[in-house]
Hints:
Blueprint: H1 20-53, H2 57-76, H3 78-94, H4 98-125, H5 127-134, H6 140-172, H7 177-181, H8 183-198, H9 205-232, H10 245-275, H11 282-315, H12 320-357, H13 364-378, H14 381-396, H15 401-425, E1 428-430, E2 438-440, H16 454-457, H17 468-493, H18 504-522, H19 531-552, H20 556-569
Antiparallel strand pairs: 1-2
Amino acid sequence: MDDPGRHEGPAPDEVPGAGGAEEMRRSSSLIAAGIALSRMSGLVRDAALAFFLGANVGADAFRAALKIPNLLQNLLGEGVLSASFIPTYSRLLAEDREEEAGRVAGAVLGLLVVLVGVLVLLGVVLAAPLVRLITPGFVGERFELTVTLVRIMFPGVGLLVLSAWCLGVLNAHRRFFLSYVAPVLWNLGILIALVTLGAAALVTPAVAAGWGVVLGGALQLGVQVPTVRRVLRGSLRLSLDHRRAGVRTVLRAFGPIVLGRGVVQLSALVELAVASLLAVGAVAVLGYAQTFYLLPIALFGMSVAAAELPSLSTMGVAGRAALRARLDAGLARSAFFVVGVTIAYLLLGGDIVDLLFGRGAFDAETTFQVAAVLGVYSLGLLPATASRLLQSLLYAVDDARTPAVIAGIRVAVALAVAVPLMFTLDRLVVDLAEPAGFVLAEGARVPSLAPADPALRDATENQLRLGALGLAAGSAVGSWLEFLLLRRRVTRLTSRPRLGGGTLLRLLVAALVAAAVTPALALQVPTGAGSLVRLVIVGGGAGLAYLAVTWALRVPESRHLVTSLARRGR
């Protein structure tokens, strides 16, 4: 699920007139650092949510409620607003027309405040029908709690849209780090509310987290406002002047970008709708698993794409040989880390989930659920991260339509795979006393295309079913299809990009070696040792084996990493 406190765009390439390669490298590093801090704070936030909510009805309601207003943030904020606003605003600054730039920024802000205000009001008033439409499987307490949380959260997510306007202004003035690290405060707001309101039992933990979304939105916006005021230097003129030439340019670009993003957001809502038809716990389990799944995509996919796109933009299609080399370098860089993470999730997913989430209301059975879903999700990690770079290349040559169309195809295929699987797998119940870890529910028949029994969806506790695995499988298939379609399109522009940048076979050999040594390493773990000890001994040993083999096979990123570590150790 998308994190509404997270900024994923734009990359510095979307800012015209950046001064030289060194400045771009520095800007990309700042963005990557901000994203990394934001993601790590997101892990801490989810650990707190797991402690207080587990994977019960409150967790399902919170995840679903956050998704609904999140649509507003994703359609109007983040990369959408920035990609339409930054180019016009930056051109005015480059032409030394600061007064006009301030008027355009003020008009965009004024129009945005009115639009967001109306949509937030509608969201609060129409919360019940929205929840009924988007989560048709929610009944009883889960439905009522979701409605309450949607009404609480909508204003907070509205503040995040205004925060995206601040991001646009700051990026245009080459102030990158603050706007990308600001989501840390969004996560902090949720943590503060959970600890103060939830722990004190003033409200339920789910409601406390909902108020935390509002507090976090205010903090994320508020931390950027002073710097925005300084860089504008009094030139901001708040208005609703949509007829001004610069504002018309922003609005013309805004519409098509919103439509393109709409395809992606529709997929998230459709996934939520079908997940609501599963037994209680499925929505929360998907959310926890996606926290881990999205982490390497952000760190090794988004950051590499953001760092490479400036160069891709300047090369264009004409420099085909240089373009191929650039693509291979980016694909190899991300693949080196992602293949290692995939092996870790597949072999040690249970220990990773238990170490971060395994306390409070988050029991061993829930850990098994999340680890199983994470393992299936991880099968799509490699193509998902590679697709980020291929999308960046298409954006660099002004082709925003193709990624949107391919995203639509991915959604359709993923659902076609997921739906029959998830209803069948929802008949499997976690039972850690069994060798496989699960059993077929009493009286259940498989395969099945029928949703879970209403009683399982009206429960208040996690029903420990494995239906979420079906949605994860659909996502993995969709990721591979998206990569293949993007690669076919990119091949028409330049030579065929290689998954892993030509290092994939060597990476797979190293991954197999790491997997092969895992059983021997597991024998060295003391009886009764916890997840941390197992991760240090088994994970650390397998990681060293992966690094050693990739170094021996002359994988460039491995060589660079070893050299850097050796240099720092001197």
